[in-house]
Each structure stands twice: as C-alpha cells, then as structure tokens.
Amino acid sequence: MAVILFTAYATVSTAVEALRLGANDFLLKPFEMDDLRRSVERVLRLCPARESGSTMRAPAPRRGAAALVGESPAIIAVRAHIARCATMPSNVLITGESGVGKELVAGAIHAASARSDQPFIPVNCGAIPETLIESQLFGHVRGAFTSALAANAGLFVTADHGTLFLDEIGELPHAVQVKLLRVIEDRQVWPVGATKPIPVDVRIIASTNRDLPVEVDAGRFRGDLFYRLNVVHITLPPLRERRGDIPLLVHHLMRRLNGKLRTAFVGIEPDALNALVDQPWKGNVRELENVLERAMVLGGGDKLSLQHFEADARPPTTPLERGLRDALREFERRHVREVLIETGLDKREAARVLGISLASLYRKLGALSLLATLSPS
Question: With contact defined as beta carbons under 8 Å apart, do 190 and 176 qualify?
C-alpha cells in the first residue's frame, strides 16, 4: 500500500523518519488540493499497482536507470539516498569520477521529486566559455553588451519551479561563484544589464569530479558556496570498486545498444565477460558503454566473444600504477576467484583451501564484489 503522510508539525527529522519507515510522500498542512492531487499522481506513477491490485511495487526513479544498475552495497546506498532526498527541497551535491553517471542520478532525483512535471535543465559549467557563462546562467537584457542583440532569460529562469543541474561545478569561475551564491541566498537573479531582479524557485543539484574541500582550502572554490551546495551529499563509486555490478551493466547496456544500433545480440561469452570484469575502467560506465558499442558495431554473430574486444584488450592495471592497498585487494580477489573455480564453486572446500571460515569467505565475496560473477553452490 502506498502511504502519503500529512502533518502540521513538520521537521526535517520527521520527514526523514517517515520516508525511512516507508512513506511515499510527505505533505505539510495546510495544503492546497492541487498539491494533494500532484502527490497522489506522483505516487501512482512511481508505485504502479500489480495486476492483482493487492500489492504495490517499491517506488523507483524514472530516470537514471543506467547509472543505478547493480546490486552492490554502494549502489543500494545511492538508491536509498535518492529516495530520501527526492521529496525534500534541499540542494544536492553529487561527487564521483567522470563517467560514473552523475547526471543520470540527478535526473532520477528530479523525476522522483515534486518538481518532476517541471523542467530539468542540465548545464556543463566547464563547457561554456568564461565570458558567456554569467549570461547563460542569469540571463541578460537586450543591449547589455555589444553582441546582446536580443534578451536572454537565462537558465535559472528557464528552470523556474524545476531543477537546475550544474555539472562540473568545480569549473565555475570565481566571479560567477559569488553571483551564484547570491542567487541561492536571495532566490532571485539579476540578468546582466537589468535594473531589477527576477524571482526564481529552482532546486539546484550540482556535481563534480574534483575534491571540493581541497579546492576550498586552495582558494579556488568559495567555502560559503560549497556549504550551500553540499546540503545532501551523494558519492558515486568508480566501476572498479563495484566489479560485481559489471555483468548486470553489460547485459543492460547490450539491450539498450541493440535498440540504438538495430542489432540482435543475445548475450556475451563467459570468457569475454570475465575479461571485461577484470579491466580497470578508468572511464567508468561511459567507457564500458563505448567499448560495448564498438564491439557490437564491428562484431558478427549473436553473441559477443573475446575476439570482439581485441582492440580494447589490455592487461589490468599493474601494482606500480596503483597504491599498495589496491594492488593487494586485486591480488586477493584474483586468488579467491581462482580457488573457487578450482574447487568447482564449492564454498566450504574453498574456505578450507584458503584457511578461513565459511563466514569469512562470504564476507570476502561481498567485499571483493565476487558474488555477482560466480554461480551459487
């Protein structure tokens, strides 16, 4: 059963606790009937009834599915963060390496929020020239500068009542950081050349692959802006730290690419899948998708095999290219996997050969992301 909680005594802790206990939405009394109608529509959309009508599916974001494929503890935690913060108006900061799916997670938060029927505007702060970014974000009036032949509303006004996703926020010039802070605090924008501000109601989701606290200490990013953006913090792990999710991602991406490329691949050979699991994936999910697409474009047959990936074959990262902890973890992962294969996936026998208890072996399988790549015995 879907649950919408009404209360006249709302606090952040009350809302978080309600959502943790299973509520699907949260309304503060008094509320308008339009608010209730939107809430019911949103809950029905996120929790479609089964054919029997007796049970409901758990709510899930409509966007960002590719970034959320996986059953590793890290991805389960990300899903939980999305469910908890989606219904709140707070700003969100998403951090992680390039290619992990930060924009898709931002889209998932927007889709599960009360603003889902309003604009979701993504902007790459590093892709706009420094001379234009202020005008792009905040707008300008006609004649504000030489090339301003027409007025521009700006992305904040375009995203009014919706969500503005500021990708690679760490690339934002210092002068624009000051103006962005003012917009967040005053909830209004001053277009370049304007004589009066424009009120805006925008939720900000920002992302970066930089270590912003380090950038703050170095004076390259304003500390007050960082604290305004970092109300809710979601960290996306690199693909190499959740290798157990790679088989699930491969099959998901192959299905999606079949539609894009009009191909009909039905699967991937085990040795090819194992080779993909062992790659370092410095470009994360984006690199994995590119490698799969190249193999599906150039390959033949109905299954991907190791020969389809010959152009991308490379040995895993050597210990000299990584820290000692990562190298030891990779060695342990390979050794445990080899022992399991040699013992026919008999976990009791593998634990005996490794000289550890069965419970310790299961903990290692989870910690080393091996559960999803091995059949249960």
Answer: no
Measured CA to CA, the distance from residue 26 to residue 83 in angstroms comes to 12
Q: What are the helix (H) ranges across 203-323? A: 212-217, 223-229, 246-261, 270-277, 284-298
**Residue 184: CB atoms within 10 Å:** 15
Distance CA 146, CA 42 (A): 46
Q: Residues 260, 296: contact at Cβ < 8 Å?
A: no
Q: What is the pLDDT of residues 315-325, one digit of tens each?
A: 444 444 456 66
* Alpha-carbon gap, residue 184 to 224, rounded angstroms: 11
For residue 238, CA distances in Å to 210, 212, 330, 376 come to 14, 18, 15, 26
Quote the tokens at residue 123: 């902007």
In whole angstroms, give the CA distance from residue 166 to residue 124. 6
End-to-end CA distance of the chain: 36
| Predicted confidence (pLDDT) per residue in 89-141, tens digit | 899 999 999 999 999 999 999 999 999 999 999 999 888 887 788 888 988 88
Task: Measure the CA–CA gap between 279 and 42, rounded to whole angstroms.
Answer: 40
